[in-house]
């Protein structure tokens, strides 16, 4: 599963989302459209972990955990007949958060990771 290709396809179809949940659902739908045999679950906690990834995708016997952040700029825009009124989500709100270490990293050994 090429997540970058899926995101690119989604970007051309849906350049704007109302909120993070809208983005999560649209991404899950796009993954399922591209890979009908994929199993997708929302907010599933891996055994032995305290994290809840936004999506867990199982495809071809591989599980991929996906955590999304949908930061927005203030905008009033109409796309495809749909009006979007977005508030600003400043990066400054996230700068002060410290990354959390997994207490039991072995819990996620069956998950693939990727970066852009």
Topology (SSEs and partners):
Elements: H1 3-13, H2 20-34, E1 39-42, E2 55-59, E3 62-66, E4 75-79, E5 82-86, H3 92-95, E6 111-112
Parallel strand pairs: 3-6
Antiparallel strand pairs: 1-2, 2-3, 4-5
**Beta fraction:** 15-25%
Biggest sheet, in brief?
A: 4 strands, mixed
Mean pLDDT across all residues, rounded?
Answer: 76
Number of helices: 3
Rounded to the nearest angstrom, the radius of gyration is: 16 Å
Q: What's the overall geometry?
A: globular
How would you explain this protein's 3D organization?
The protein is α+β, with helices and mostly antiparallel strands. It has one domain. The chain contains three helices and six strands. The strands form two sheets. The chain has a four-stranded mixed beta sheet, with helices on one face. A two-stranded antiparallel sheet has the order 4-5. A hairpin with a 2-residue loop joins strand 2 and strand 3. Helix 1 (3-13) packs across helix 2. The longest helix has 15 residues, at 20-34. The radius of gyration is 16 Å and the shape is globular. The protein starts with a helix and ends with a strand. Mean pLDDT is 76; it is low at 91-116.
